[in-house]
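Worked example

This section walks through a single chain of length 145. The input is the sequence exactly as stored; nothing has been trimmed or padded.
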Amino acid sequence: MNHSPANIIAEYLFGEAILTDPDDSGLWHGYVGVLPDGIETDDDIAACIDTTPIKDGRVMDGAALFHFGVQILLRARTCNTGYAKAADLQDALAAVDDEQVIIGSNTYQIVNVSDATGIVNLGQEEGTKRRWMFSTNFIATIKEV
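Given that input, the structure is written out below as tokens.
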């Protein structure tokens, strides 16, 4: 694959308008690999981050099968806002059933996505804004088409 599983999941969430591409105007910007910080950074944002994949054997032609790990970190102005967005993300990803995602000249098939942890409240961040942090983790089956 030419794109990370986190990038593929983020593109899917952009297409479904669950998150907004950081280059576009809108609420709940989604990033890949990093959750930007700083006093000027939006309060309500999320980041898709790759985690450890699970190797699940091989097919007859020798190709390895993987279930890719993706963590979504969220930062929100209020506890209720963050929890609600995490629940929206879980619902959107639980509904995935053979969805195609196109990134540049590459097409990917997200076969399914399974919730691995539920919603984890990480508490308030340190600093002046004291925004709320949440995490939710998924296992995804993704293949290049």
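What to look for: The mean pLDDT is 92.
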